[in-house]
Write a structure and sequence with these properties.
Strand content: 15-25%
Distance between the termini: 30 Å
CATH superfamily: Clavaminate synthase-like
CATH architecture: 4-Layer Sandwich
CATH class: Alpha Beta
Number of helices: 8
Low-confidence stretches: none
Strand order of the largest sheet: 1-2-3-13-5-15-4
């Protein structure tokens, strides 16, 4: 049976028909997933019992080169021994739930800010693939914002104003807004990268805003005015009509295009309930 997608939101987000992505190796189905990404920007696949190795292998089949320069690597070792496998959990290396005051938990609170994965490096992230392993018995959702629709809704004069502008993206900056402190070597490892404020997405040729909490300043503008512009654009892009909220089930795999979406984790009692997800991100190359 051919892979199909049903719409979960009026503007974006597709839900896949039943499929086992571990067994997807044929070019036609992989191409259909990429077409779905071009149309929906976020795809939801249920019942995907990936091992970590299968997760990594699927990401490479779908989109090539993996992101291995995770921001968290500057402050801690990856507990899986593979920097391509992002640990999106509230669990420490000892298997225990992280408590208030733990430095890794404090760093992870940055995931509650609207952000794009790997925008703080060059090349930046393209597709992120998040797999749910352990889901708490309370709501611990993830929200996504469609930055293509947000761009389309801007007044023509604002679109003209944004053309040619660039933002500096830094994961250190976004964490520092929450009071997280970095050592000198950590700060040096997280210098960031510069990207256009507006990106044109290949294949679909749609334009999208490329801003999020990692965007520290507008390169061409004075800092105060630039930061106000970035704040206003994020507020515009996260209005309810542009946002989808995903309630996780074990086995869910959600893929999103970082070039044209933002996302954030919603808070829950994370010092009480265990939540474990794995993320693999590909780089925007080729």
């Amino acid at each position: 049976m051919a892979l199909t997608f049903g719409r979960l939101h009026p503007l974006f987000v597709g839900e896949a028909s039943p499929i086992d992505l571990r067994k997807v190796h044929d070019a036609d189905t992989l191409a259909r997933i990429r077409q779905g990404m071009d149309e929906y920007a976020v795809l939801v696949f249920h019942d995907q019992p990936f091992t970590d190795e299968e997760h990594l292998a699927f990401a490479e089949r779908l989109d090539g080169r993996l992101h291995t320069r995770l921001g968290s690597a500057a402050i801690q070792k990856n507990r899986f021994g593979n920097e391509a496998l992002g640990d999106i959990s509230n669990v420490g290396a000892d298997g225990e739930i992280l408590q208030t005051g733990d430095r890794r938990r404090a760093y992870g609170l940055g995931n509650r800010l609207w952000h794009t994965d790997a925008s703080f490096q060059d090349p930046p992230g393209r597709y992120s693939m998040l797999s749910a392993k352990v889901v708490p018995p309370v709501a611990a959702d993830t929200e996504y914002a469609d930055m293509r629709a947000a761009y389309d809704a801007l007044p023509a004069e604002t679109k003209a104003q944004l053309e040619g502008l660039h933002a500096h993206h830094s994961i250190a900056y976004s964490r520092q807004t929450l009071g997280f402190e970095f050592s000198g070597p950590e700060q040096e490892a997280l210098k960031g990268a510069v990207h256009p404020l507006v990106r044109t997405i290949p294949r679909s040729n749609r334009k999208a805003l490329y801003v999020a909490s990692h965007a520290s300043r507008v390169v061409e503008w004075p800092v105060p005015e630039g930061r106000l512009l970035l704040r206003d654009l994020i507020e515009h892009a996260t209005q309810p009509q542009f946002v989808y909220r995903h309630a996780w089930c074990v086995g869910d795999l959600v893929i999103w295009d970082n070039r044209c979406t933002m996302h954030r984790a919603r808070p829950f009692e994370d010092t009480r309930h265990r939540r474990e997800l794995r993320r693999v991100t590909t780089l925007d190359v080729g």
